[in-house]
Known about the structure:
- By secondary structure, this protein is mainly α.
- It is built from 11 helices and no strands.
- Helix 2 packs antiparallel against helix 11 (288-316) and helix 8 (194-222) runs antiparallel to helix 9.
- This is Mitochondrial 2-oxoglutarate/malate carrier protein.
Amino acid sequence: MSLHSFNFALISTQQQQQQQEQPPKPKPVVLKPISNIATFAFGGLAGMGATCFVQPFDVVKNRLQVSGAGGNSFNALASILKTEGIAGIYSGLSAGLLRQATYTTTRLGVYNSISERMVAQHNGAALPFVYKLGVGMFAGGVGSMVGVPAEIALIRMSTDGRLPVEKRRGYKNAFDAIARISREEGVLTLWRGATPTVIRACVLNATQLASYSQAKEMLQTYMSMRDGIPLHTGASLISGLLSTIVSMPIDIAKTRLQNMHDKEYSGVLDVWRKTVRKEGVLALWRGFTPYYLRLGPHTVVTFILLEQLNKLYRSVF
């Protein structure tokens, strides 16, 4: 045997020994799929539960965004409590719950059902981040079109208290708001601002859902966090912060378009142009604190409730 052949055989033997010594890689865990009905129902229930906690921040955020003037979030909250009482900071709650029952049910249901099946097709392997972005964007767009009427009712009901008494719309609840808007302004008004709503939903969901999944994987990998409430909370806070920064300018445009009495704005770009010219660039992030205090906890509570409902379903069924 030549020296070259001997060295080749020795290297091959060493490689075989190293392969035998290395423990086999664990197979990815494939979670039991959840039925489509349960997936959609859990998404809606989680969103509605979270809304009950964060509605006051949504009211403050909406009023700051339509005011056209600077203001402190905590001063705004104190002013609402002083003039309207506890009911004031929960104005529009019925619309908020209806929005979650339509928008969040659809977006989380679509996202989870698609992503779970894609993971199952890949034998439990984690989806690439770009796939998560795509699925999140699609889910957000579909959900937003379903939820626009409830969104308009929510914006109007939560900002009604800042108007002079003679100009208040005085909707009794979300269904009364939708019925009156249809009767007094036409059915198509229920989809006013649909363009920025869909854009915001696509951007928000692509960021929120994809970053939540990605943050959860990274926290498990690099910080050795086990699946549980601390992991879900950490991933949700990261997701909420990123989503707030990215989506606020679009949310400002959506809120002002949906709340306008007359034809003050012609579209999203017109809102941005007039806002920046009159109020400065930072006005596009006006209400950042209540927006994050609303979106951050809402994200946390929604995902924690959703994870617990999924866990309960898998343990029972």
